[in-house]
């Protein structure tokens, strides 16, 4: 199951989920990619978004308007749908119109592999791609460092690891950019949303840090991707270049 949270009144870029990309609303473009991997449901707070989804043949669920994050919206959607505790649920952001189906499949496969090894799905999973040293300086591009088992150690808007002696070449796989996709079990999704906000989460404005600060494991699938999120109106220039 893939749930796409689609809030219409984004703070930095209102109505962005409905802007046309190649003649197709952004959230629909994401849904079309996702449906090649699994069942897709859009979780939205506006009837206008649900109507657009309906026009394109996608299921959409109306959720409360007061959710603080897409994960909270997704959790409500999962409850409405009555999803089981052991079901894998992938959270795919509605502002990732160029996410490759292979990326989604890689995360799904990794979660399934870990579940087969341990008998249950990991608490949380996500994806990362190699980025350049220059890209790592962009505070809008979240970085992640992982351990030898590809479990996340930390996420940050700052370049991590810090290259103290300037030894990292621009072409090495020393910096990993985080992609806006998460996987949970039905149980861990609800548990995550019940955890109090953490100090690190509030400082960096990265909700995945809540899981790490409370000692939860986030496994990372390292993937190849040209995908990028649409966070601000300025990102529309990237779209023109990509297309």
UniProtKB/TrEMBL annotation:
It is found in: Cytoplasm. The keyword Nucleotidyltransferase applies. GO terms for molecular function: 3-deoxy-manno-octulosonate cytidylyltransferase activity. It comes from the Bacteria. InterPro entries: Cytidylyl_trans (IPR003329), KdsB (IPR004528), Nucleotide-diphossugar_trans (IPR029044). Pathway: Nucleotide-sugar biosynthesis; CMP-3-deoxy-D-manno-octulosonate biosynthesis; CMP-3-deoxy-D-manno-octulosonate from 3-deoxy-D-manno-octulosonate and CTP: step 1/1. Its EC number is 2.7.7.38. Keywords: Cytoplasm, Lipopolysaccharide biosynthesis, Nucleotidyltransferase, Transferase. Its main location: cytoplasm. It catalyses: 3-deoxy-alpha-D-manno-oct-2-ulosonate + CTP = CMP-3-deoxy-beta-D-manno-octulosonate + diphosphate. Gene3D superfamilies: Spore Coat Polysaccharide Biosynthesis Protein SpsA, Chain A. One of its GO terms (biological process) is lipopolysaccharide biosynthetic process. GO terms for cellular component: cytosol. PANTHER family: 3-DEOXY-MANNO-OCTULOSONATE CYTIDYLYLTRANSFERASE, 3-DEOXY-MANNO-OCTULOSONATE CYTIDYLYLTRANSFERASE, MITOCHONDRIAL. Activates KDO (a required 8-carbon sugar) for incorporation into bacterial lipopolysaccharide in Gram-negative bacteria. Belongs to the KdsB family. This is 3-deoxy-manno-octulosonate cytidylyltransferase. It comes from Helicobacter apodemus.
